[in-house]
Amino acid sequence: MTGPEVVQVRIGGHLVGLIGLKSILEEVARDYAGRDRAAIEEALLARASQANYIAPSAREAYRAGLYREYCKLVGLPLDEEKEGPLVVKVLGPGCPECDRLEKDLMAVLAELKLPADLEHVRDIREIACYGVMGSPALVINGKVVAVGRVPSRNRLREWLKAAAGK
Predict the structure, then answer these.
(1) Residue 39 confidence (pLDDT)
(2) What are the pLDDT digits (tens) for 90-116?
(3) Pairing, β 86-91 against β 116-121
């Protein structure tokens, strides 16, 4: 017998494991469709607090992070979190080109010694939130910078340095 699923999400610049997030998001999407953002955020926070400890000082960070995950689920535009390391995403189903882009990014990030969260997004619903129509696609700090091709390592270096402010 397994317990509830734990999903990692970015909260206040850190990856945090949350118990039962998928069902919380689905319930709020069903029960709060058409409601205003504040009501949705409060419902997300209240339901997440039932299975997860949320320190009072972290409530606002959780509110923003949970709402961002809700937006991904229902297809609303995303407000990517700006604090913390670079957030780099490869969007694609896992084809050889997608995998090559991911490996190239790992190599360039290591070479530049840049701290970054690198994620390969394979879920078609999450990919659709970015409005891309080809793969692989590359997103750096919430901005789509390439679609349908694997950029050269030199170009990746330029983009990553610019995003890191170097």
Answers:
(1) 95
(2) 999 888 999 999 999 999 999 999 888
(3) parallel
Q: Of the candidates 108, 90, 106, 87, which has an alpha carbon nearest to the alpha carbon of residue 98?
A: 90
Whole-number Å distance between alpha carbons of 166 and 105: 17
DSSP 110-126: HHHT--EEEEEE--HHH
Structure token pair of residue 100: 């090559």
Helix (H) or strand (E) holding 25: helix 21-31
Cβ pair 141, 163 in contact under 8 A: yes
pTM for this prediction: 0.55
Average of per-residue pLDDT across 65-73: 91
CATH number attached to the domain at 86-164: 3.40.30.10
Domain ranges of the chain: 6-74, 86-164
